[in-house]
Amino acid sequence: xxxxxxxxxxxxxxxxxxxxxxxxxxxxxxxxxxxxxxxxxxxxxxxxxxxxxxxxxxxxxxxxxxxxxxxxxxxxxxxxxxxxxxxxxxxxxxxxxxxxxxxxxxxxxxxxxxxxxxxx
Length: 120
Hints:
Number of helices: 2
Distance between the termini: 25 Å
Strand order of the largest sheet: 2-1-3-4
Structural class: alpha/beta
Largest sheet: 4 strands, mixed
Oligomer: single chain
Strand content: 15-25%
Number of strands: 4
């Protein structure tokens, strides 16, 4: 059950925010075998100054249209699947007008912990 955090500056329409979430989820379904109905996302809009990023780090020009995506998921996917995920997210968001240079994706991998009963 991946948890996806999507951060962007205030100002995008509710429709575009929904489409961004849809695009990221679709990429996960297509590339890393996430079930269609396994969708848990936190989309957060930030005031200017509350979303801090370097506009030229590593020579990549970033604007206020930046989209930061953090995906927390279980360990175990191959490097090829992760690369495919990054590429597919960028492709889907580019189709919505999000510049590839304005996208930052961070994967946080955690060890799988099977569900257990919680004592009453």
